[in-house]
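Quick start: what a row looks like.
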Amino acid sequence: MFIPGYPPAPFPLSRHLPPLGDGIAAAYGEKHSAPGDLVIDPFGQSPHAALELARAGRRALLVNNNPVLRLALLAAVDPVPSKTLRAALTRLADTTIVKTRLEDYARGLYRSTCPDCGKAVDVDYYVWEKEALAEKFYHCSSCGEDKTRPADQADIALAARYAPEGQRGPHYYWALDRIAPPDDPDRQLATDALEAYTARALHAIFTLTYKAGTLTLNPSERRALDLLLLMAYDEGTSLDGSRPRTLKPHTRFYEKNLWLTLERLAADGAFQGEAATGLSTVSISDLLSRPDPAVALFEGTMRDLAASGLIPPKSIPFMITALPRPNAVLWILTAIWAAWLWGQEAAKPLKKFMSRRRYDWAWHEQALRAGVSASHKLLTKGSRFVALLPEAEPGFVGAALTAADASNFSLIHYAMRAEPGEAQFTLRPDQLTVEPPAKLTTAMRLRAESAAVEVIRQRGEPVRWATISGAAFVAFAQEHLLRAAVEESASDPLDMITEAIEAGCVNSPQLAHMGVEEAEADSPRAGRWWLAEPEGAADPLADRVEREVAHALADTPAGRDPDTTTLERHLCAEFPGLLTPGSAYFRRCLESYGEEKDGVWRFRPEDDPMARAQDYERISTELKALGQRLGYEVKTGAVDIYWNDAEAEAASFRFIISDTAAVGRYVLPPPPTRARQVMVIPGGRAGLVQYKLGRDPHLREAVEGGGWLFLKFRHIRRLLEKSNLDRAAFLSALGLDPIVDQGSEQLPLL
């Protein structure tokens, strides 16, 4: 089953790294290891796994060959005390530059005036738009409030001082020369990378870094100052959001006051919330020689660790890791930051990433394979290797499973979900001799097609290409076809495998491409995929998930109301493997039936099963009364209510009352009559119905083709209150009840 995590706590540089949820590693560790075991994270992308395992009594070894990331990870595992951070920053603040205290000088870089009171202020950040200074945000102590105001001419002149008429000052060339001297072949690449910084940010970074280098500090103070500088380097970029994809700033970006940033980090303790009381960070020798729970960091790759002889072969019972994605921006930035912090020699191992322009999935598969293969050498027989992909997409899933299968691992358990894409794979080391099919490509095409048909039938609804691709890769891994593909096409196996999946599915007579614009019809990744002959498919997964969420809320024992993650874990246990629902849809269902208070969920009062049953009976009675009042002959069927016109040959209206958004069982079969089809639902379920229609083109086509209307419970009550309502007014009123009550989404007839 898929194991959801709690929202992760931030740590230095966490916006660039896999967002691994809290509690996932602990759950897997409890299942596959014992207290005192040595557990390894072979790719060391997040501190969460190591911390959780150590808290649970394991000895955790975090492997990472990037010195900048190690500094950030160590800050999460073994936080620098606030007292040390503040002391280091005070030492830096007290240095002088041009006969001015450094703190005053650094504040002056972002000094402005409040236009409302005329007092001097320190700007928290400036907003740039299309390479022009536009706004400033600051706190005015005189006015006693936070403010956003347009940048004035003095602000513009201050910013221009650090790059007069496009010229580049000494701070820029210090930043550039520190990375790549004039004769360095990577000089132009470094120049391009510095576009991520404004001229003022580079000036501040140069000043802070240079003055920090003049200080004589003890090791703990030096580590504290290095950490603060690293955070200034990251916060000083013009790149916003999580995992920036390019070093080019957006047309609108923020320029932060770096001195205020350092002050806040020092005051907050720079991510001190992670470490557990009593948990220690130790040397590798101490970790290996003592049974006490602790965390150690290995400076190198997994291949380096396997070759070092520190750990005997076939001795590790469990490994768990968040696999890295291709991340050129982070790799380039860490090369720059290493040079700024420690000089060119420290940056040399990282500079290779600056010259590589393309990091495709085929390249990434080979990089992952090197680490996974080295891990195999240390794992004991019957051990487990858990690979977590918090940001899964088809290429990433393919690269991960291909690397694992080619490294002699067997796929034991798997779970994947979308919205957002996530995957979790449990692997076992093996030494199987696999005999590949005589015609490997043909076999892969046929297996991809059958895997796609199977997963669509199981889900009972159109699926995205990511689900089809994931199903094919899982099938290939289970049958070791990926291993065979690597042996047959050593240079580019992933491309060959991907082409086989597309060839097997895109032209399959068993599959239909739906919900895609004509311009994207040739792209399998657009729209969704459904069965050409859907007979025999399961009930729509979305409806089954909705019912299970409602049951989970109803079955909660009194006084034991669950939190979001507890409910989500229950749901994932009910729908394992490729049926695991996405977190976004789960949340939609939860919000449709429940309400959150103090971190736990309860039924909304109106959705309590007893209250809803009474509501159902009342609406049925009101609907019959309304039909009789309008002069229709009212008849009741097994699940529906008919309004018949005595003068017509067929029923005029067919109403189905549903207290859920699981409408597929009603609208997907052909209507039994030519009557106007009306689905009557609670208002609280309307948003969930709309969401389902947006994600399921098969359901949407059935609604549109059947001429279905949606009517909310409350609208029936309003109609009954209208004393002058007649048949014509009722027909008009049907079109006035939107399925949702928000702007352009008001679709009365779908």
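That is the whole record. The chain has four domains: 1-78+272-327+357-432, 83-268, 541-603, 617-745. Residues 273-277, 741-750 have pLDDT under 50 and may be disordered.
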